[in-house]
Amino acid sequence: MSGDPDHPNLKKSERHTQILLELRLAPHVRVVDLAAKFGVTTETVRRDIADLSAQGLLQKSHGGASPCASGTRRVLDERQRERLEERRRLAHKAAHLVQDGQQLMIDAGSTVMEFARALAVLHRQVTVVTNSLQVAMILGSSEGTTVIMTPGSYLNDEAALVGTETCDFLRRYHVDACYLGASALSEAGVSEAIDGFAAVKRTMMEQSATRYFLMDGSKFGQRHLVKIADIAEIGHLVTDRRPDGALAAALGAENTKIILP
C-alpha cells in the first residue's frame, strides 16, 4: 500500500498526531480515507482510533471518528457515553430526513449533538438556528451550512444558552423544522430535567412548521419536573425502538409518527 507521499511510513504516534490534526479541520474523518493517506490497512486505522478514543481524545463514529466535545463539563460528557450506538443510529436516521435548503432549529443535548454530526457528515446545505455551543461548533465547520447562534445566559454544564433573551431571539425566525432532544417521554407528554431548557424547546416548537423529537428508548415511561409538550404536540418521534404499553396507546391516539432507523 503506497499511501500519501506527504505521510511516508508514519509511526503509530505520528499517525495519532495526524488523525487529531485532521479532526481540527473537519467534523468527521473516515477510516478508509485515513488508511489511504497513511498507506496502512483500515484495521490499523481502527486500532489507532480505538486507542485515541480510550484516551478521551476523539469519539469513534460510524466509519471513522469525530472530535470530542469541547467546552463542556462532566454532566454532558457522561450523557454522551450512554447508549451511544442507539443515539447515533436514530440521529443518522433523523439527518436523512433533512433536505438541502431547509431552515432548522436545533436545541442542546447529547442526542442532538449526534444529529449535528450526522448532518455534517452528509454535508447538508442548511441554515441552523441553535442555542447549543456544541451544535454550532460541529455544523460551523461544515461547508455550506449557515449557523445562527442565540444569545442568552450560558449553562456551562450543558454548553447551552437559555433564558428570556434566547427565546426572544428565536421568535425572530420561522423555520421548516425543529429537531429537539428531551429527558423523558410518558403518556403525559414530553418533560425535561434541566432548568431553562423547557422554555427554549417550546419556543423552537412554536417557530417551526414541523417538529421532530429525538429520544432513545431509555427515556420512555419517564417523567420529569418541567413539561415541554403534550403528546398531541410532538409531531414526529425519531427513536431506536417502538414504544409499547400506555405510551404506545397515547402516541397512537394522537397519530404521532414514529420514525425508526
UniProtKB/TrEMBL annotation:
Domain HTH deoR-type: 12-67
Keywords in alphabetical order: DNA-binding, Plasmid, Transcription, Transcription regulation
Keyword Protein transport: no
PROSITE patterns referenced in this protein's UniProt entry, alphabetically: HTH_DEOR_1 (PS00894), HTH_DEOR_2 (PS51000)
Example of a GO MF term: DNA-binding transcription factor activity
Membrane-crossing segments per the record: none
Record InterPro entries: Carb_Metab_HTH_regulators, DeoR-like_C, DeoR_HTH, NagB/RpiA_transferase-like, Tscrpt_reg_HTH_DeoR_CS, WH-like_DNA-bd_sf, WH_DNA-bd_sf
A Pfam family hit: DeoRC
UniProt KW RNA-binding keyword: no
Full protein name: DeoR/GlpR transcriptional regulator
